Amino acid sequence: MIKDLSVNVHHITRVEGHGNIILDVKKGEIKQIQWQVPEAPRFFEAMLRGRHYDELRPITSRICGICSIGHSLASLKATEDALDIKISDQSQILRRLAINAENMQSHILHIGYLTTPDLLDLGSVFPLVGSKHQETLLKIIKLHRISNEMSDLICGRTTHPIRLVVGGFSMVPNKKQLTDLRKKLEDSINPIKEVAEVILSVADKIPDFTRETEYIGLSSDEEYALYDGCINSTDTGAFKNYKDYKKIMQEYIVSQSTAKYAKHVRKSYMVGALARYNLNSKQLHPLAQEIAKMFEFKPICFNPFMNNIAQLVEFVHNIEDSMIQVDKLLKKGIKEEKLIKPKKDTGQGIGIVEVPRGILLHDYTIKNNICTKANCIIPTNQNHANIQHDMEEFVPQILDKSEKEIELNLEMLVRAYDPCISCSTHYLKVKFV
Amino acid sequence: MKKIGIIGLGNPLRQDDGIGIKLIEILVKKKNRFAQNIEFIDGGTGGISLIHLFAKFDIVLLIDAIDFNAKPGDFKFFKIDDKIYSDKNINFTTHEENILNVLKIFEKIDEKPELYMFGIQPKKIDFKNKLTKELENKIELILIRLEEKIKTFL
After folding, report:
1. Does a structural domain hold residue A166?
2. Is the ipTM beyond the 0.85 threshold?
3. CATH of the domain at B143
4. pLDDT, tens digit, for every residue of A75-96?
5. Using CA atoms, how far apart are residues B43 and A104, in angstroms rounded to an integer?
6. Span A268-297, pLDDT tens digits
7. Which of A374, A379, A375, A376 is nearest to A354 (CA)?
8. A143 lies in which domain range?
9. Residues 111..170 of A with a Cβ closer than 8 Å to B: which?
10. Which of A26, A68, A75, A165 shows a CA-CA span of 20 to 30 A to A356?
11. Which residue of chain B comes nearest to A102, CA vs CA?
């Protein structure tokens, strides 16, 4: 079809932060497709230099309001790696609960409030109130609340945790609190199954688009890797030495974006729930496997829109896994423990975890207890190039649609990645007239 | 007895955007001087996730940096009600999904508390973990007025 098109979406909605989509088509020929990230660079690494190792975790937890637990854990793991600190088994279990809580919080928010409205042909979550889907919305709110309460209980706050500290936990939940949490997790299984049924009923709205790419994430022999593992790739397999991360996550700069881009063996790669699913789906817990089956979701899946289904599947896995972790704590008996002290005051350490949007890495150099160098590689930056290349391949396939539909499809593509461009600022503009 | 939540919002790594957090940190240190039914919370940049906290309170006061075209350090106290956020003359935007819009959902399910805002005009929102001198110098005055407002809820 020969046509002219000019799509210019400034500040795409229902994503964290600011991103623009530019599409220019003249007489059916695509002149320009661009995914732009115009936000100011943030220089958080510079803020860490000159700080005592105890301060690195609280500072980095403020980088992001959604991944504050993930940043805290990457920071603690890097600090503990640098200073040779081995935390207790109990702390390891509690940290796994913390990472499950964050994944649950973020995934249900994204699936429930931000992407499902697209599948229901609604512009936002608000029309769900008073509609035939109100019951589903109430279930989503309930599930979101349970995830938040779990963060509160394990980390001491819904966001910006305070109990996660170098060497362990400053406070731990008691037996009764864990037993209550166990019950709430169990009670959330039916609601999430029902939410999954609703999403399945509109799953035909998920665009049928595939583009082969590389998926990178953590993998572990022990479990579906979130807290620990080695870097793995669907193209090249696992890297045993995590210190080689710069050879894998090759960051570079492009003119249309203030955020860095990244590549490995291809021109781009993807991180996040879909990458983890593609790498490790066999290790998902049984109910999560069942939900994946409902959607006929099989690895390797090259459809980026299925990232949202991977998030749904992971949410179920996180509930199942949290129950297992709580049972371990209850069986062993939970107790307050002394924090493990550093064995040295100088060293370099790397902390890698999986956060909702993908693999997150902190690399610190500490000299005489003071941080002298820091490098943080965040998931969304690793996905920007993949979004760009998806757009380049997706647009020719949907050119016969109306301008409005093309715009919506491109917005849905970006939203599928759940980008967190800059959730680090909360700034309200008010105009009193 | 009414349950009152005082929630500081913002990012201390973003210069004056951290004013809400700075104020809540000071209030937490002297919480014993306030009635037992008042809880002080550092809400950071939790965004939508914070609304579940609102449900446990009858009254919520948000403390945040707001740009209302005033002098740095000037502050404004107002009730956030239907009139405020549906009034076309008043435009709220955040970098996230609009928290005030989301509150409408909670209103429909009868979980919305009475909501107030104590907003402070920032001078600069940059990538620094320190307030500007203008705001730092006005903290004591802001606190006096803020504490007065909190007492009006009792």
Report:
1. yes
2. no
3. 3.40.50.1450
4. 999 999 999 999 999 999 999 9
5. 19
6. 999 999 999 999 999 999 999 999 999 999
7. A379
8. 44-383
9. 113-114, 125-126, 129-130, 137-138, 141, 144-145, 148-149, 157-160
10. A165
11. B49
